[in-house]
Amino acid sequence: MKLSIGIVGMPNVGKSTLFKNLTKSEVHIANYPFATIDPNVGVVTVPDERLATLANLSKSKKIIPAVVEFYDIAGLVKGASQGEGLGNQFLTHIRDTQAIAVVLRIFKNPEIIHVEGAPDPLRDLEIINSELALKDLDTIEKRLKKLEGEARAGDKIAIKALETINKVKAVLEKGGLALEFRDEPIVKELTLLTAKRQVYLLNGEESEIPPGLLEKIKEVGADYVVADLSKEAAVPQLIKKAYEILDLISFLTTGEDETRAWTIVRGEKAPQAAGAIHTDFENNFIRAEVVSSEDLIKCGGWNQAKQKGLVRLEGKEYVVRDGDVMVIRHG
């Protein structure tokens, strides 16, 4: 699977600077709102030091790391859900992402303007989530009439969906998010923005975190990273945290042609992992030869690991672990 993350936040909080460091590409950074008009999309490799070591053991011709797709989108302001600024365009673009990285400015620099006046990350957090919720409520309202008609006609799926969507509506109207409903079919179908996992990027220093901010982030069911987003060190932190909040892991394949990392959801079994490589591998899965990358590296190669009994034959019920090196056997 390919992980995609939308970078969102108020104007001039560090989004485009972060994107520049993520992708090493020059994007338009300017000291005024809406400098980023069209979404910048960048594909960033996931840091994984195991790949180079395994490639060396296998004498691989190439290394293919896992990737994350980042979308840097125009700044969000109060009223975005109603079309203020570039809000509608912004909100449409993040529907296609799996998670949202919310950039909050905690650094204090009077030379960098803030669209709402003085920097206030708690206020910005409230504005962003309120606008996402308002847009979701608009999405729900547009679908409700059709659902109500289908439910009256006795459609059991529609009856269940209507029940769920009314619960979601009630939560959003009270200022909450739809995260607890993220696995419901109707919520997935509507790609509700407030049902996406969030990670907050606090742009500044630990000492600049205002009282109550971390408690509020926890309250909305999210996690956070504190970093100076103008520095490249923020990139691995963000990717690692994104994998954590989405419960993703990597398994590996290695050979003379290539050494490669594959992203799957934690808890998936061997056939599902095989499907990440090719759907035929999942459909015709027989078994997998598995060894941990740590054991394989320590032994110095596949044959040595086999001789020590560290390569296992696993069947359809095997739950894949992070760092497993696998050879898929299929029909």
The structural class is alpha/beta
**How many H/I helical runs?**
12
Count of strand segments: 12
Distance, first to last CA: 23 Å
- Order of strands in the sheet with most strands: 2-4-1-5-6-7
User: By CATH's scheme, which homologous superfamily of the largest domain applies?
Assistant: P-loop containing nucleotide triphosphate hydrolases
Query: If you compute it from the alpha carbons, what radius of gyration comes out, rounded to the nearest whole angstrom?
Result: 23 Å
| Fraction of residues in β-strands | 15-25%
- Mean pLDDT across all amino acids: 88
CATH third-tier fold name of the largest domain: Rossmann fold
Low-confidence stretches: none
Largest sheet: number of strands, sense, barrel closure: 6 strands, mixed
Helix and strand run: EHEHEEHEHHHEHEHEEHHEHHEE
CATH architecture of the largest domain: 3-Layer(aba) Sandwich
Shape: flat
Indicate how many domains the architecture comprises: 2
The share of residues in helices is 25-40%
CATH class of the largest domain: Alpha Beta
